[in-house]
Write a structure and sequence with these properties.
single chain; alpha+beta; Umud Fragment, subunit A
Length: 253
């Protein structure tokens, strides 16, 4: 019997699609790029990083001082000393001028003003102030010595003493600065100030113009207008404002 013919199955070859080829080519390209990237990264890891050195900033060198600069430095202390000397001189000159016009200081000598003032006291004198009754004034006597006494009579005053009581223009005047001296004198049966009248001592009924009648507080031992007469206004240095030395006896008058 004849065998039936077997049908031969022929596999048909599929034609490659253009899109698939393109995808394969693209994938191969991406693989290549990835491989290149890996190589580059490996190379970059292996390659040492170059450090950029900072360019140093050039500093300007200070010029050494020449001979003139050294001379100026050497002369600067001298200039400072000269300036100090000039300022001190001007200051002393100003003080001197002011002392001749406005104020001055003196050192008291003697005990004619005890208990208010003592020998060696330093006093501040106001040249600008005109004397009033019971002010302490500094003046020069006929010998040129500087004295300090208390004003008892000003120009035009009539005055006298009786039983340790001062009368000026027929009015009683209280002298508190003499309270201790008067009490001590009375205990000894004496007077602190001997009785007198202005006419008996000077021949004048009142204190002349531009003149002053002065007494020392230590009445029993002081030399004052009872002995040398009136004090001319021209001889007066000024009015005693305060005692500044010794410091523990600082006091104003």
């Amino acid at each position: 019997m004849t065998q039936p013919h077997e049908k031969k199955t022929v596999k048909k070859k599929r034609k490659p699609v253009e899109g698939i080829k393109k995808k394969k080519n693209a994938s191969s390209k991406t693989k290549k790029t990835v491989a290149r990237g890996r190589k580059r990264s490996e190379n970059t890891k292996k390659a040492p990083i170059k450090k950029h050195r900072m360019t140093p900033v050039k500093r300007k060198r200070k010029k050494k001082p020449g001979k003139q600069g050294v001379r100026r430095k050497k002369q600067s202390p001298k200039i400072i000393l000269i300036e100090i000397g000039i300022t001190v001189f001007i200051f002393l000159l100003v003080v001197f001028v002011l002392s001749k016009v406005t104020f001055t200081t003196i050192k008291l000598e003697g005990y004619s003003m005890t208990e208010q003032l003592n020998d060696g006291d330093r006093l501040f004198i106001n040249r600008m102030k005109s004397p009033s009754s019971f002010d302490l004034i500094a003046f020069k006597d006929s010998k040129g010595d500087v004295l300090v006494r208390r004003v008892i009579g000003v120009p035009g005053d009539r005055l006298y003493y009786k039983d340790d009581q001062l009368y000026v223009n027929e009015e009683e005047k209280l002298e508190r600065y003499l309270e201790n001296a008067v009490s001590l004198a009375r205990q000894g049966g004496m007077k602190a100030t001997e009785d007198f009248t202005l006419t008996q001592l000077t021949g004048e009924n009142s204190v002349p113009e531009n003149n002053y009648f002065v007494l020392g507080d230590n009445r029993q031992y002081a030399t004052d207008s009872r002995y040398f007469g009136f004090v001319d206004k021209k001889a007066i240095i000024g009015v005693v404002e305060f005692r500044f030395f010794p410091f523990h006896t600082l006091a104003g008058f």
